[in-house]
Each structure stands twice: as structure tokens, then as C-alpha cells.
Amino acid sequence: MKELRIIATGGTIDKVHDTRTEALSFRSNSESHLSQMLKIGRCYFPVVEVLMLKDSLDFDDADREAIFQTASNSAENALIITHGTGTMDVTAQFLDGQIPDKTVVLTGAMRPFSLSASDGDFNLGSAVIAAQLLESGVWGVMNGRVFPAGALRKNTALGRFDD
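C-alpha cells predicted for L-asparaginase 2:
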């Protein structure tokens, strides 16, 4: 089995409903939901690292460089990066070809884990399996599908990722 690290960068998967602003935001203590999600699935082996909690629509090249550096310097050879769906494809293409000796899987959610009927659990579980089985390279795992970095596309009209 490949050693696995999950790197949290934010996105909808980690957002909560802020009752003061009636908007989605991150928890004030800067904690990720990922450890709780893994515990519910009785999945205890991945290391979880919170790099940042940020909406991917606010990402810039410095954020993507920080993701690259963290992934490159990770001791594990299988990585999951939780990421907002808005620019997941941009980050996947940024990383593609830069980390040839590791399997890097980007995943996220269209609906926060903190709300009912989230796709976050399903996508995270799918990514845990995919990261262990896929060959080296950069991949996206969303909605039960695996996409090479260059084919990762969000279909906003249908609310899912498609070819």
C-alpha cells in the first residue's frame, strides 16, 4: 500500500454556514473537516495536513506554488489535495508534469461536508482509493470519475465534473 497524505487547501468541502452573514465560510478556528470525515469512514491511515483554508476562486500563483512545494516535499508518494471546485482544473494543470514520482489526486465537493447531502464524503473516499491505485501523475477525482489533469472540467450547468 502506498503511504498517503491529504493536503487541505480549502474549498467548499471544508466550508460551514455562517449564521451571522448567511454565507459559506471556513470555521473560525481554521480546522478542516477531513479528520472527522475519515473517522466516520473508519479510515485512519492518511496523514492530514492543513496547508490553507481558502476559496479556490481567490487562489493565485503563489497559492499554487505553495501547494506544489508542499506536495513535492511530502515524504508520501500518494497525495490527495482537497481543493475548491471553481479552479481545481487550473491547479491540476499547474501541477501536471511537475511531480513525476508521485500520485497526486485533487478532489473536493459541490456542497459542504457540514451540510446534509454533501458529496464530500463520497469524493474523499473515492480519492483515497484512487491515490493508492493510480500511477504517478496528477488526477482529479470527482463524482465517481477519475480524470487526468488535462481533462478535468467542471460543468457548472449540471453541477458536476464531465469530460
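The chain has four helices and ten strands.
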